[in-house]
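Write out the 3D structure for:
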Amino acid sequence: MTATVSRIRRADVRVTAWLAVIVAGVAGCGNDKPDATPSPTTSSSSAAPSSTAGAENTAASAAALAAYRNYVRAYVTASNKGDYNAKLDRFVADPALPTVRQDLLIKFQQGLITEGEPSSTPTVRSVDTSRRPFTAEIEDCFDTGTWDVVSKKTGRSVRTDGQATRYVVTAKAELFDDGQWRIREVNAQRERPC
C-alpha cells in the first residue's frame, strides 16, 4: 500500500511539474506574457476530465489569451503609428491577417491614425485540446472610449456620432505547428454592448 501511495504522489509531482514548465514557458515569452492568469475553462471534449487534460486546458487557455492580448497590443501600436506594414503574423493568421492588414492600409491611405489606448478585458469562453490543432474561443469587452481615430494632418477625431465605443469582440485562436498560438478570426460585434 505504501508503495502504491508513493507512486501516486510521484505521478502527481510529475503532472504538477509538467504544468509548472508549461505555465513558466507561457509566462516567460517576453511580449507573449499574458496580463493576468485566466480562470480555468472547460474543454469541448466528451471524454471524462483528468488532471492531465485539466492542465492542458489551463495551459492552452493561458497561451491563447496571451496571443489575443499580444495581437491587440500589436494592432493598437501599428494603428497609432499608421504602420500598415507592421509585423503582425506572430499573433494573427489567415483568414484574420489579411483583413487586419487591409484595415491598417485603408487608414494609412485615408490619412488616419489612432490615438490613445483601448480597454480590453478578454476571457476564454471555451478551449478544445481533445484534437489537434488545439483551439480556443475568446470573448472581449472592447472599449474604445479612450482610443480614437483621428486625421493625421489635423489631429481631429473622425469618430461618427452615436458610434458604439464599448462592444463585444469575439475571436478564435489556434495552436500552430510551430508552437505559437495565433488569432484566426476576429469579429467586432458593435451591436452588442458590454
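The longest strand covers residues 181-193.
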